[in-house]
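Pilot study result, target chain (122 residues):
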Amino acid sequence: MTNTSKLTELSLRQFTGSENWYRHGINRNVLFTDGAKFVADEGGAYWLLDIIAICQRHEKNVSAENFQVWSLKVNADRTASVVCDDGNDNIVYTQHIEYTDFPIDEIKLYFTNNVIHLPSEY
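Predicted structure:
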């Protein structure tokens, strides 16, 4: 299998702000930036944005945090874990992913003020 994704750690460095804001399709109160859209488009990871947006509605421990750090870590067997913490390494949510073809081993996204974005866009 050849990885043809444009999503690399190097490509993520181009995002230092956002010119556009996109409204999430399921949770209309959540927006995401150009960088988060790039991750979703190039990594086939709209499911990751969905997890973040849906948790804002249905997970009280998550929505209670004004600032959230979301980490996706992909294991060698292509399973993964999604973890949300409060920015001080206090975990408030974890979800196991049975399989992913996400092209990089790890990524972090921030959620604050109802916006999902890359750390470099914060």
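One observation from the pilot: The chain has one domain: 21-121. A full batch analysis is planned for the follow-on phase.
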